[in-house]
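Box 4.2: Ligand-aware structure prediction
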Amino acid sequence: MKMSALGFFSFFFFFLLFAPSLCRVPSETHLQTKKEHASTPPRGWNSYDSFCWTISEEEFLQNAEIVSNRLKPHGYEYVVVDYLWYRRKVPGAYVDSLGFDVIDEWGRPIPDPGRWPSSIGGKGFSEVANKVHSMGLKFGIHVMRGISLQAFSADTPILDAAKGSAYVESGRQWRAKDIGLKERACAWMSHGFMSVNTKLEAGRAFLRSLYLQYAEWGVDFVKNDCVFGDDLDINEITFVSEVLQKLDRPILYSLSPGTSVTPAMAKEISGLVNMYRITGDDWDTWRDVLSHFDVTRDFSNAKMIGANGLLGKSWPDLDMLPLGWLTDPGSNEGPHRTSNLNIDEQRSQMTLWSMAKRSRRKEKVLSQDFSEGRMLGKRALGLTTCKDPKANGWSTNALDQNLEQICWREKLEEPPCLYKRKPLLSSGVEMIYKQRYEGTLHLLASDGLELCLDASPRRRLTSKEFGGGSFTPCKRDANQMWELNANGSLVNSYSGLCATADLVKDDAGSSEVRSWIATGRRGEIYLAFFNLNPVMTVMSAKLADVAKVLPWKNMKGVSCKYHEIWSGKSGGTKQLISIAVAKHGCSLFVLTCA
Ligand SMILES: *[C@@H]1O[C@H](CO)[C@@H](O)[C@H](O)[C@H]1NC(C)=O
């Protein structure tokens, strides 16, 4: 209920999709325009990360209002109630409790009237859907597999939706116990739901009665849970898809979760749905973010992004962005804490989710070979007495006539390098500084980004901090001024100590950097660097290598202007894009080349 302005962020569902425009007159609009479903990744907000199952109608509509006002202009249009909207919020009820659900006489879940007062009188979600539509948004709900254990235990009759009465076949009325597959209970909610036998016409009649009701309520999006990944129920997916295909209002079909999903498994269902998760639940830990990189690459390489889907396209879904004001999984509480991801990690997540959407064919994953991650950040800056021969390891390396690097131990296969520049000591009043710092250097982590190697004694320099914090905005500060001696030592103007850059022992295994490249509608190129390392890493890509993955671009002799989205820095280059990327952080360059 206490929605801060930031709150809505938590719910960014990067549902990786979007959808056609709002259809107020479903049958007509749908038939006349035959708009492709999910022609781009549907985006919106889902209540789960902030409310778990506990959200009320009032809270939901407040969030919808924020989505409508603030996010709709950016293409977010779905608002989705996540699971257990039919569970009474009373003492004893929790995510796997039994017996607290509100079901109708046909064993179908209906909204808990305590939390969804507009549903009273058999109206279901109609009024909520109307309100959401009047905000210019689309309305989605979460549903579980099959039938609830509660309906099964009550052995409710099955509705024949066409007749509006009990389903009768071979002269007998069919009931929940005839169709429920108790041995196929949802593994992670065993007191909740079980599959139904879709080989029986009665089982199909039950599923049909559910989805026809959702359509009547005005639902535009269904997230079907516990049917995919480790919980795969291909029969239910296939039948639900058939029902949705015949509806006269478009309902996007989304599957969840996606634990252990491979492109091969996804290929079996992608044509039947519009979205399907490709990982387990994503929460606000770096480990969860990290687990998305390989699988996203695999789905991109398998050309699964924007493949054919139900009445349109289908999209691998990386799950929600757990940003902003959150709750915890399995909780009975609403939002009460902020995301545990730091700002760099949040940007990486947002950037990967955005880059993964492929609106044009030309986009490809840059292989790691192209990204030339430089492991500068894996080396600790040491300060030692200049008398120590160990310090004599620096030498100059000219990239072109204007650009020089200073590299540590040239013989290394990937020597860590810094970019050399004269400190900016221009104006007249600074004569005294000019004299004092004649011959000194600023050492930049990357060309064109104003971050300078800083030997400030306020920082702990001997640890991994070197990566995380020893580059600070360039300024006229003796801690940032360095002199290269003929014997290869690099002396700091403030302390008189000399720098070394020795390998940090790395517990986290091999160094990992990733690059993604994409093209935009106006011919611009998006180049993303992700630093998965626990220390700052300088990453670079040669324009010639960028051209190799965009073979339709001849980059010979071109020069590119770039704008880095997260830092706001701009510049130009003819050969190399290079930047120091924070631990777990990313950079996103927009290149326009001529
Ligand atoms: C390297 O040169 C500097 C400046 O001439 C000198 O102070 C330092 O002692 C030399 N280091 C070694 C190890 O010879």
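In the box above, the bound molecule is 2-acetamido-2-deoxy-beta-D-glucopyranose. Residues 386-387, 389, 392, 485, 487, 489 surround 2-acetamido-2-deoxy-beta-D-glucopyranose (CB under 6 Å).
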